[in-house]
Specification:
alpha/beta; TIM Barrel; 2 domains; ten-stranded mixed beta sheet; two-stranded parallel sheet; 10 helices; elongated; methyltransferase; rRNA processing; S-adenosyl-L-methionine
């Protein structure tokens, strides 16, 4: 059996309970690990004597390493290539924003520079979305809760992480148990991340959405909708066949009634596929009874992996105006970040990217922070 991450909460808790050790020591161990990453378990103070042999024989401070670090040319995006102990790789992306940019409810925004971490939940992905580089990898394995949390640990050594989005490699809801455990660790001591600043994105795993609020209250839900009709969704997202749009919308209505939270709708703009005026009206009609924030996402090139093209700025703006003007739906256009290091939305796939020019635009406003 492989040595586990000390952040694999369920396993560590089970080992302590079997040995009769009070589990309230666990967060204190995590605090020591965060503050002293190069120390040993024997240096963790004030633990029961029975805890040390368990920790030394079955756990590690970190089972993963930051194998390589790529910085975008504009210095607002950092991509971490993280090597797991089984030799697999995942990617996590740090995106730096300035929350003072833009407006909120027509008023100037407060705050200042801070960072969002985009986290992976799986090695590869089984959803097979045709516009996403990760989907080309196929599914390799689920990450443990510890391997998920370790991405935050690695990223925190570069800068303070304020927001977390589960929009990296994999479908988070297909690794539900580890997802829930990891977020509970992140929102507890010593990480103390605000659940209101954590967003989980899904293509629409209906059975998981139905229990999401009960398990993770206050955590934001984002749905990768990407089309207003089931036939288009099935064309670009093969997994959508298992999650009919009508049933998905029913699940979202129940979720919102129970949670009283806005839902983020992710919508990638594909030229000639889902970006026409008729699509905007269809989307508006689909969503007008829900409280949502629609994020329009420019398609990011993934080389020869697909035949899609990016919608023109004119079509994206026109799409936004229809949703806002005709349906009063709050709609944002996602800024493109990290394209030159293949760290942008839909580009995460384990390889070493070739750097290309990217115009520097300084710090950007963060759409994942709209709810706060």
């Amino acid at each position: 059996m492989a040595v586990r991450s000390v952040f694999d909460s369920g396993v560590l808790r089970s080992e302590f309970e079997k040995a009769g050790i009070n589990t309230h020591f666990i967060p204190l161990i995590w605090k020591h690990v965060l503050q002293n990453p190069n120390s040993e378990f024997n240096e963790v103070p004030s633990l029961p004597s029975a805890a040390y042999p368990i920790l030394n024989s079955k756990f590690k401070f970190s089972t993963s390493t930051a194998h390589s670090v790529l910085e975008s040319l504009d210095n607002v995006t950092t991509k971490l290539l993280i090597k797991l102990q089984n030799g697999s790789f995942v990617e996590a992306v740090i995106m730096r924003y300035d929350s003072r940019l833009g407006t909120c409810a027509g008023k100037p925004r407060s705050g200042g520079p801070r960072a969002t971490l985009c986290i992976s939940s799986q090695v590869g992905c089984k959803m097979g979305c045709t516009f996403c580089a990760t989907g080309s990898m196929g599914f390799k394995s689920n990450l443990s809760s510890g391997e998920i949390v370790e991405q935050l640990v690695h990223a925190s050594r570069f800068c303070h992480i304020r927001n977390i989005v589960f929009m990296g490699m994999g479908e988070p809801m297909n690794n539900y148990t580890s997802l829930v455990e990891a977020i509970r660790i992140m929102t507890g001591f010593p990480f103390q991340q605000s659940p209101k600043r954590i967003t989980v994105s899904t293509v629409g795993i209906i059975h998981a959405i139905k229990k999401f609020h009960d398990d993770l209250p206050s955590v934001n839900l984002a749905v990768s909708l990407h089309a207003p009709r089931q036939d288009i969704r099935c064309q670009i997202m093969p997994a959508a066949r298992a999650f009919p749009l009508e049933k998905l919308m029913d699940a979202l209505r129940v979720y919102q009634k129970n949670s009283q939270q806005k839902i983020f709708i992710e919508y990638i703009m594909l030229d000639g596929v889902n970006d026409g005026e008729q699509h905007a009206h269809q989307l508006g009609q689909l969503l007008e009874m829900l409280q949502v924030v629609v994020n329009l996402i420019p398609f990011n090139p993934i080389g020869s992996l697909s035949d899609f093209s990016t919608s023109t700025d004119k079509r994206v703006v026109s799409f936004q105006k229809i949703l806002r003007g005709s349906y009063n739906i709050r709609t944002t256009i996602r800024k493109q970040m990290g394209q030159d290091i293949s760290g942008a939305c839909g580009q995460l796939v384990v390889n070493l990217p070739v750097k290309g020019p990217l115009e520097s635009s300084g710090l950007l406003t963060d759409i994942e922070d709209l709810r706060v």
